[in-house]
Amino acid sequence: MGQILIVEDNPFFRQTLKRMLVTRFPSLEVSEASDGEEAFSRIEEASPQLIFMDIGLPGEDGIHLTQRIRNVYPKIRIVIISNYDTSEYRKSALQAGATSFLSKRSSSPGDIFDMVQSSFPA
Predict the structure, then answer these.
(1) pLDDT value for 106
(2) What average pLDDT score do residues 57-76 get?
């Protein structure tokens, strides 16, 4: 189906999201990164079509990292998925080049699955 990268510093959330995705979409290859430097390494290795990006990362935050990734890899879809669900963060995420914004608190697994399905049309 395709490649997904999860950029998240919380290992429990990262592993939970990965398990959810590979269970629902067994043909997906899902890689992980816990910060921006690791994210760029994984992008070069795996060439993901979709990235789930947290905002609160060590070092460079997810908004700036999104902008940097979009400048180098403009075709990668980036979905910000964060606890910081404010209109300011949503606006900043979209201005940085994110495709979409999902709240960790109010988004359902179905919302995440829909985002994956729309990124990898059959």
Answers:
(1) 87
(2) 94
Q: Give the separation between CA 122 and CA 116, rounded to whole angstroms.
A: 11
Phi/psi at 62 (5° precision): -65, -25
| Token pair 């179905």: residue | 110
For residue range 79-101, what is the model confidence (pLDDT) as tens digits?
Answer: 999 888 889 999 999 999 999 99
Supply the DSSP symbol for 47: -
User: Half-sphere exposure of 35 toward its Cβ, with a 13 Å CA cutoff?
Assistant: 4
Predicted structure pTM score = 0.94
**Residue 57 phi, psi dihedral angles, 5° rounding:** -115, 155
CA distance 56 to 75: 23
**CA distance from start to end of the chain:** 8
The string of DSSP codes covering 53-120 is E-S--SSS-HHHHHHHHHHH-TTSEEEEEES---HHHHHHHHHTT-SEEEETTT--HHHHHHHHHHHS
